[in-house]
Amino acid sequence: MTDIKDSLFQPNRRRALKTLAVGAGTVAAAGMLPGLPGYNQAHSAEPIRIGFQVHRTGIGAAYGRWYDRTTEACVAKINAEGGINGRPIEIVAEDDGTDPKRGAEVVEKFASQHKCDVSFGTLFSHVVYGSAPRAGELKMPYFVVSEGHHVASGKLNRYTLQPGITDVKSQVQAMAPFISENLGKKVTMIYPDFAFGHDHRDYFSAAFEAQGGTILEKIAIPPTETSFTKYFPKIPRETEVIYHVMVGPAVLTFVKEMGEFFGPSRPEIFGFIDSLEAVDMTSPGLEFLDGTYFWEGMPRYAQEDQSEFDKAYREAVGVDENGASVSDSKDVSTFAHMFGCWETLHIIKAGMEAADYQGAADRSKLIEAVEAMSDMPHSHAHPQGAKVFNGKTHQTFGHQYISKVEGGKLVLAHTTSIEDTLYEDEVDYTTQSF
Amino acid sequence: MSTSSNTKLKALGLHLSIIAVLAVSFLVLPEYHSGIIARVLILAIYAMGYNLLFGYTGLLSLGHALFFASGMYGLGLAMQYLNAPPLVGLIAGLGFAAFVSAVIGFLALRTTGVAFMIVTLMFAQAGYLTILLMGEYTRGDEGFVIKQSQRMIAGFDLSHATNRYFVSVFLFGFCLLIIGWIVQSGFGKTLVAIRENEERARMLGYNVQLHKWIAVVISGTMSGAAGAAYALLFGYVGGTFATVQYSIFPLLYVLLGGAGTTIGPLIGALFMFYLIDISSEFTSAYLLVAGVALILLTLFAPQGIAGMLRKRVIRWLP
Questions:
Q1: Which residues pair with residue A192 across a beta bridge?
Q2: Contact A129 B148 (CB under 8 A)
Q3: What is the CATH code of the structural domain delimited by A37-166+338-398?
């Protein structure tokens, strides 16, 4: 019944709105209404509703806090610049408790109750896995900011995309050339014994062996472990590099005990900053990390050659040159990941504008528009760096950063090329129907 | 007609009415809420399984997530690696949950009281860690997706909202009728006798240990059925469902809804879901709200909502 009503009345209403809007637009263009907001009145002024699946509680809360701030800052920027197709963005945030069941419920809520246009923002992989099937069934575009390999592996669906952050497989394999050329050829890996650690184990060992290196030992640490001293004697004496990806609250203990074990004569050490996101590098116990290397998704500390984009991004989000909140220097950001929210929102904007997105009926057009994207230059929309989006695998690829800890700060030592991060396609989502 | 037959008929009538109301509700419920009810019904099956052990037999388990996850992984692994069709997957899930609960029951029932709680908790933790250690197949904490194309039975798409709703109602109704029948049978009454006074039941000649073991197996299998149904209807299998948090959920549902009542688990699961869903719109401390509600209910209605109804209004409530 509603459909019939709409089809009867909508054309006239639209025409009337269009006439009014064209009139207002002409007047505004002539500079006669300087007080008018920047929105293009030719389109409906209805906001674009973006469902933000945020980890406000649970294990992802530290990330969620900064994803929240970055999202707010980005939406303020985009709205100040005229919104999307002249329509402002409205964020509808729901806490998923970093839980896959609640995550799926939140996606349902965005689609059926809040009537959101798209959903976005999920970080933890298990929440993505739990939510993506529902997003696909509800035909709700689901833009994740997770860095998991789940999207590019082909395990999800056409409605799930990861255009704003690179995935763990590309990150890990891009580290192999630097480590083998600069740190050593014999590596011992220490990683948590669950999926995140297994990804590192599998992708890094394959990439490193392809570089001619050798993995001497793979030491898996059970997730419930709180002390690590019994694992260090397993590190072979001939180890030249230790590769570690420990995460969670025990990481400070891990670093402290590793320092006590090696004393002054240690091998080279390489880690992923995931271990120390939102952790102050000057925290007691982390002195041992001085001189070691870390992967960073985006350099936490403003570098000497800081780009104007990095500078503007920090100012907008409220992050100082040390990667901490401008209002509290102890509140350290999750700088290596949160740019993904900023960049994803800009991609949603670009996709909606390319698809001339009007409403939920245009969701498939939006996905096709994003799939058609490729080069994303380093810009205010992409402050982390240039990227290449693969429309078939729904995954973006970009530069990775390797920093050295010097005097309690992370100093950029190497930037990988985008080519270092590429791998064979594992799926072609564009062949799947909507 | 005897009083007992009369009560049984009333109980059957109540259960059939609930199933009918749930089925008809689909026509009036908004899309979001019908989707939620489908999920809540599956969780209510889980809680019904839990209630048989806790509410009727008096055994407080802190490890039921292991049974839920057994059903979920039994189905998920069969469908993922053996390409099993959904019905075969469902049987695999039920079979695996029954096997796990039979073994755990055999071992854990050597203890009683607090020791039983701790032993079940430890077994569940061991199960969770096993899922993580077998990450190559289980994908551990991340889990895996059962694709939409796999979730079809003879062209019947289980991922479709309407189909999912009615399959949930069917499964819930089936389990409710089974539980209703069990608790009013001689076996069910023996379980209640064990709960009330184990020594007296033993003195009367009942094989208490065997009854408790059968209760664990039925309870675990029903919880596993819920896990398998969740995976099939919502397309996700993951280790999170084996964590201690998911052992606590059915306990909360049963405490809120009414332990030892057939409809308590449904009431508790519904109450808990909407409490969290609504309070999370106002505060990120929604678990605090749930905790306060639970404390208030425990203080003022220790028998839970359905328990209070039975005490004050509907004395024949099964």
A1: A221
A2: no
A3: 3.40.50.2300
